[in-house]
Every structure is written in C-alpha cells, then in structure tokens.
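Revision sheet: structure tokens.
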Amino acid sequence: MGSPPFADKALAALVGAGHNIVGVVSAPPSRHGRGRQLSSNSIVRMAQENNIQVLQPQSAKSADFKAQFSEWGCDLAIVVSYGQILDSEFLSLPKLGCVNVHASLLPRWRGASPIQSAIKEGDDVGGVCIQKMVLKLDAGDVLASSEITLDSESTSPWLFDQCASAGAELLCEFVESAKKSQSLPEGTPQDDALVTHCGKVKKSDGEIDWTLSAIDVYRQIRTNLGWPGAFSFLPNGDGLKVHAAKLCSDENVSGNAGEVVIGESLKLYVCCEHGAIELIQVQRAGRSKISAKEFIHGNNIGAGQILGAK
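Predicted:
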C-alpha cells in the first residue's frame, strides 16, 4: 500500500525478489496535463505491468474496499507513504497485521516530514525503520531499522533517495524473515520521552528567513531543495529560487539580514543575522537556472540591496 515517489523502490524490490504480492493499494487516478486526462501513478502502473491486482479506494475506511481487500487473504500489509488513515478494523485484516516503512529512526520524527525535519534540525543520523502499525500515528513497536549518516552538506532530496533505497533493502530482508518464520519479530517499544513530531511541509516553509544565523539559513535551504524549493524575493518583489548555496567562509562579509554583498570574482553573498550565505545557483521567477555570476551580470543586482523585503 503506497504512493510514489517514496514507495516506488519498495514495490520494485519486492517484485524483483519474487515475493507473492497479492495486490497493490494506491491513490485513485488523478487528472494531469492540459487535457486533464485521468492517469494512474507509477505504483499502479508497476503493479499492472506485473499482473498484480490493484485497488484505488477514495476512502480506506469504506466497507466495500475492506471487503475487496479481505478477499485477497494476505498475510501481511506493507504501508509505504500511503497517505490515508487506516482504522482498527483494517489493521486486523491481514494475518500478521500491518507494518509501515518510515523514513526516520522512530521515536524521532513521527509524522509527515521526517526527512525534511532531520535536515532542518541538523541531525547527525537519519535512517529508516519498519514499525508495527497501531492506531496512534507512528507509535508502534520498531521491528527493524537502518541508519544513514548525515553531515553538514546533506540535503532533503539526497536523504529521500537514501531512505527509499535503504527502506527497500530493509523491507526485502524483513519480509523474507517473516515469510520463513510465519510471524513478525518481537519489536522494540518506542520511548515516549524521546518522541519528536513533525507536520506537513507547506509552500511557505521554503521562504528563506535571513534573520536566522547563516548555519540555520543553510539548513533551511538544504531542507527545502526540491519541494517546496528554497526561495526569497528581490527588491522589486520578483521571486528568486535558490538551487545551490554554501556557507560564506569570508569573515569580512557582513551586513544587515538579507543584504547583498558582491565579493571578489563576482561572488554573490547574502548576509544573515550572524554570518552569510554564498549563492551558487539561482533562478528568477519565469527564467532558467543560472550561476550567481550570470545572475549578477544580467539582473541589475547590486551590493546593499535587501532580499526578502516585501
């Protein structure tokens, strides 16, 4: 049970390992493109290509869906970024119950944005775990886990890919073990004292707050690469997306929060409350990605201007 893009590698790995996948559950078809044609997602297409039955309920709580699901007689339900709440009746339908592949080392980062939260908070370690699903969100016993080392350059897109790959590998090992024993392993209860929560990422989360320290701004940029994107505003109000940046190593660069400084070799710096960020690749609204040097040449950006002011 899952949705792309996070579930793609998990389903592909299970198919590749030859496990008996009796069915796939994913989101209903959605409309895309100018013609607003209904189209299925990559999870559904992968299932169809491998002759696997598919259900796409509007609501996972509906009696019709549960009846259809029960007919599959599955031993284990695997949930990977499915996106719907599963009630107690559903959780009891598979013989061994339901497990969830979650992109954090629970109990840290229960919720919808564990990957972004790990980058934003500067965690040294991230990872993926398999937990026994219970009614309370992400609160079940941890059945297996895999750590991923993070550093000061790690980004959300990079960690997403790492978690998807590690999760798929861990899942195949887990399913093989459960298949042999016809049972789930004894899990590790989560320590309530260590629980942290994270919510859904909003478009507004990508707006850079130059009043933070340079380290926190850099984390914010690395957190929001991909979607929603890290962005600010030029003095005329046009949006400016930041695709690549790094911490400024020149201690002589200083100014007010959001102030532009042009350095040697046309390096483009933006000052923060403490320290500064060097912009490497940017994109003005409606334009293509360009280097900071190209941006300085063609966009009338100058020292002393303030980004982010509205």
